[in-house]
Write a structure and sequence with these properties.
The protein is an alpha/beta fold. The chain has 2 domains: 165 residues, Bacterial extracellular solute-binding protein, family 7 (D-Maltodextrin-Binding Protein, domain 2), CATH 3.40.190.170; 143 residues, 3-Layer(aba) Sandwich (D-Maltodextrin-Binding Protein, domain 2), CATH 3.40.190. It has 12 helices and 11 strands. Helix 3 crosses helix 4, helix 4 packs antiparallel against helix 11 and helix 5 crosses helix 10. The two termini are 35 Å apart.
């Protein structure tokens, strides 16, 4: 089996605190649990970078020990570990926790929604962070953007999809609002953690699965089960990663340590986003050239039905009986309209012109 060595590894040593300064200062050792396997490309590496940067920048005053998926708690219980006080931080993605609040979907990936840069703009400058703070305040935590995969892949399918009819009864791993879209199209949807997907595909428990994109999918070895790879995803035009922190413990930190956490997370967000942008195309080339993967696009009737299902779901959230979910959905849609207008006036015409008139070797 060709899967990378990050799967199944035991817990690695925690970040080592630096030498104590001449004047004693208060020191903290915090635990970060993640939903990712250790050394996982993009997300796992990004989580470790946050921990390492906080430890180094604070001169060991705030030392972060990272526990990968399953090392301290099951991967999809990472947020609960922080809420319950069993860890001070978690690293995952917000739509994994939609059972706590549907509003959390908007800070991750929304079908036919914002791209990576658009989501970042909403969170940082268009009111998204303030709403996110309100959502997470209910659970005693704070959330910060900590990376983004960019537009994801549509997934791996055992059989080629020729029409909407092929989705009926399809057993498909996909999370968040996107999972609700595929359910409306006729699929039977489940969400399982990254390290469990390969076995489910291989055993036939799943007929299809999507996780992130070529960079992660190559490492997870999905190409060993099926060669039908659909690009791009219409349900995840981006997927924001998050750092979640215990609110009481964060607020009790000295102001400079709070700032270090914020800046380290922002730096990791930008670095992870660039990591995916650089390595997704290289991994896709490897999948196609070295492993015989066939890149396919979804038929138009699937894309159209997916768009209609997405509109229905988003309209339902804008009319939610929960006032906070309603406000988050409305803010997201207003920001999407603003960002979409800019993209249609600038980036799309530019990309079309580049496609027509400028060829690269």
């Amino acid at each position: 089996m060709e899967r990378r060595s990050f799967l199944g590894l035991g817990a690695a040593g925690a970040a080592t605190a630096l030498a104590a300064p001449a004047i004693a200062q208060e020191r903290h050792v915090w635990r970060m649990v993640t939903t990712w396997p250790r050394n996982f490309p993009g997300q796992g590496v990004g989580a470790q970078k946050i921990a390492d940067d906080i430890t180094a920048a604070s001169d060991g005053r705030l030392s972060i020990e990272v526990y990968a998926a399953g090392e301290l708690v099951p991967p999809l219980q990472s947020l609960d570990a922080v809420i319950d006080g069993n860890a001070e931080m978690s690293h995952g993605t917000p739509y994994y926790w939609q059972n706590k609040s549907l509003a959390l979907n908007f800070f991750s990936g929304v079908p036919y929604g914002m791209t990576s840069r658009e989501l970042t703009a909403w969170v940082r400058y268009l009111g998204g962070q303030e709403l996110w703070d309100e959502v997470y305040e209910q659970f005693g935590v704070r959330g910060f953007l900590a990376g983004d995969s960019g537009t994801q892949a549509g997934g791996w399918f055992r059989s080629e999809l020729t029409s909407l009819a092929d989705i009926q009864g399809l057993r498909f791993r996909t999370p968040g609002l996107g999972g609700q879209v595929w359910q409306r199209l006729g699929a039977s949807v489940t969400n399982i953690a990254a390290g469990e997907i390969f076995q489910a595909l291989q055993s036939g428990t799943l007929d299809a699965a999507e996780f992130v994109g070529p960079y992660n999918d190559l490492a997870l070895g999905f190409h060993q089960v099926t060669k039908n790879y659909y690009l791009p995803s219409f349900i995840e035009p981006c997927a924001g990663a998050e750092l979640v922190v215990d609110r009481v413990k964060f607020d009790a930190l000295a102001p400079d340590l709070q700032m270090i956490v914020r800046l380290a997370t922002q730096a990791a967000h930008d670095q992870m986003t660039a990591d995916f942008a650089a390595n997704n195309p290289r991994a896709l080339r490897t999948l196609v050239d070295d492993h015989g993967v066939i890149v396919r696009t979804f038929p138009d009737d699937i894309l159209e039905a997916g768009a209609e299902a997405s509109r229905e779901i988003l309209d339902g959230l804008r009319g939610s009986s929960d006032p906070l979910t309603q406000r988050v959905a409305e803010s997201f849609m207003q920001a999407l309209a603003l960002q979409r207008a800019r993209k249609e006036q600038t980036e799309i015409p530019y990309l079309l012109a580049r496609e027509r008139f400028f060829q690269t070797s």
